[in-house]
Structure formats: structure tokens, C-alpha cells
Amino acid sequence: MSESARAPSARQEELLERAYRYVVEHGLGDLSLRPLAAAIGSSPRVLLFLFGSKDGLVRALLSRARADEFAFLDRSLHESAGGDLASVVRATWEWLVAEPHRPLLTLWLEAYARSLTQPDGSSAGFARQTVDDWLALLARAQPPAWRDSDEGAAERTLALSVLRGALLDLLATGDVERTTAAVERHLRRP
Amino acid sequence: MSESARAPSARQEELLERAYRYVVEHGLGDLSLRPLAAAIGSSPRVLLFLFGSKDGLVRALLSRARADEFAFLDRSLHESAGGDLASVVRATWEWLVAEPHRPLLTLWLEAYARSLTQPDGSSAGFARQTVDDWLALLARAQPPAWRDSDEGAAERTLALSVLRGALLDLLATGDVERTTAAVERHLRRP
DNA sequence: CTGCCACTGAAACGAGTGTTTCAGTAACTC
DNA sequence: GAGTTACTGAAACACTCGTTTCAGTGGCAG
Domain range holding A66? Predict the structure, then answer.
């Protein structure tokens, strides 16, 4: 009856944190319990005990990744409180372009692709959720009247597309200058 | 000495074609020789004989996928020959948004993420190559003088970002109207 | 001291993996 | 007919996988 994922214990949070750092480095694709356990000083037995199954562990890791995303979302929302859409986009791009975030963003993309490939797997809904979350964030930076119009929806969808499209380019080429210039070019037209 | 991937034989092309159709449906992530072979009326032995290894097969599949991409690239280039950047982008989006292409584009995204996660794996360079190919296509739709400037590079990088960002949104939400409106919104400003 | 509880180690289980070995079969060349 | 070439089937090999079984820890409550 035990051995499932109830309220997270202290040990569970600690191991999740270490596993998360491991996954950000190595990706989700060929994640395997034995190498992971060895790297973070644990054992498959314990991971299975704490998270119920490998699937449960992956779910926990993904939700941990979303926590990172949320943390930035909140920070970005407060920093540019009252700012217009352009300033939110600019602040977001600055965060995306920072080198230390690169592995995290690669993991994010992997989870995104995963949730599309296997809609019923451990990463189900991941892609859909991030789209909704970010659109909601951008909506808050729009004037309330404009926000509810179709054109307002198109405007923030476009803003999100520019950010994510440029991110795809950045992750593949590493070309900060060109991708930043593209984002700036988008922003310099009202 | 034999059993490697030399000049593609007739049988090899036939099986590659069937395997490709299988992979477009099932993804690359948990591709496995025995189920694949069973589905396309072959055997692991034969696939290994014809492609040398599973890695060789995956490489062949990815290059087959790129052939699909190239086919569209060429068609798009001829159809809108002499057209401006906006018309090329519009034609491309029409192709991306067509329902039958959805599984292919999901596979494309999976390969893209793969090549970022494991830069030395079977899909090495995939992301980088598609970015370069598409940027080159868009460049041909720009006036020769403008094309070589930094602003020209930023303009086509932005165009590509809009297309791929909107594609990410489309694949996750399936919302054709909103994503199309976003692309159109981008196009309606010179 | 007793019982409970969260946690852990060692080893095994059964299934699935890519790959290899061995033994062919059909077709085409000389 | 002999030899070469391209292809194929059945079975085994050596592994890794997630998961389970069994047998414990150490700590804290009654």
C-alpha cells in the first residue's frame, strides 16, 4: 500500500533536486535509473521507493522544471509590472539568451517535443501548458480592452512565436547577435 | 567487409521508405528494430544487413526526412520565384498549417531536439542544417543588396522565427486560426 | 523494551535491446 | 555447372532495462 508518491519528504526533495540537476545536464531521452542513481549517490531501489516508478520520477522532474519556469515567470511579471508588451518580451529574451540557461532550455525543448510525440506519456500536456502559461503572462502586459480582442490574442501569439522561434535558432546556432537583432527588429514596430 | 551502407539498392530504398512511414507515425524516441521490422514486413537481420547498424538506419531515416523538407523547399522556391519575402513566408505557412503535414512536423521537431540533446549522436547537425537551409531559402527572396546587410539577416531570421514559433504553438494547441492570425499580423507590416 | 516507520542494500526476475553466428535461398555471370 | 552476389530466417549472445523480493537499518513514540 505504501511506496507511492505521497507528500514529498525531506529525502525525496533532496534526491529530486540532485536528479533534476543531472537531467538538465544529460537530458530525458536516455535517462536510466542505474546511472542516475550512481551519479547522485542513491540506488534504483530508493528512487523507486520514493517516486513509485520511473514514470513517477520523470513526472516529478518535469514538474520541477516547470517550477523553474514559473519562478522566472513571476520575477518577470514583477520586474516589468505596468510595463507594456514590448518590455516584457525584451526582458524575457534577455533571460533566454543568458548562457547559463542554455541547458535548461534544451531540456525544455526536449520535454516539449516529448509531449507531442507521446501525448499519453509522462510528459503529457507539457507543451500545451507552457503555451497557455506564457500567453497568460503576455496578456497581463496588454491593455485590458485590447487584451480581449482577437487582435490582442494575435499580437501576444506573435510575440510568443518570435521568442520561441528565435530560441530554436539560438539553441541550434548559438548566434546571439543575429537572433537578438531579429527580436529587436520585431520590437521596433508598434 | 560487407554488410555496411554502400550505394542504396532497390530493396534498401523500399524498406527505407516503409520504415520512414512507420517512423513518421511512431516517432524516433522509442524506435526498436523488432517492432519496426514486424510492422514493415522485414526482420532485424535484414535491416542490420542493409543499414549496417541501428544508428545507420536512423541516419538514413533522418536524411530521408530532410529529403521531404528539400522537396518542399524547392517547390516553394519555384512557386514564388521572383516573389518577395512576405509571399514566401505566406506560402510556407500554408504548407506548415496543412493537417496531413502534422506528423511529419512533429518528427522534425523531435529530430531537432535530439540533435541538441546529443550533439554527437545519429542526428548530429540536424538542427543547425535546417536553420541554415531555411535561412538560405529566405535570403533568395530578398533584394540582392539588402540581402547581404545585417538588417537583411535580421529580417529573414525574424521571418524564420515567426514561422517556427508559430509552428510550435500550432503543434501544441492545434489552433489554426490564432496562429495564422499571428503570422498574418507579422506580414502586414513592411 | 517494543513496535512502528521511513529508508536502504543486494540480488534476482523477466522482458526487451542491438548485434552476431550460422546456415541457407534465389538470381545472375562466366 | 561453378562461382559470385544480394538477400533472408532462426537462434543465440551479451547486455541493459524497470521492477520486485527479501532482508535489513536507524530513529522516534508509546
Answer: 62-188
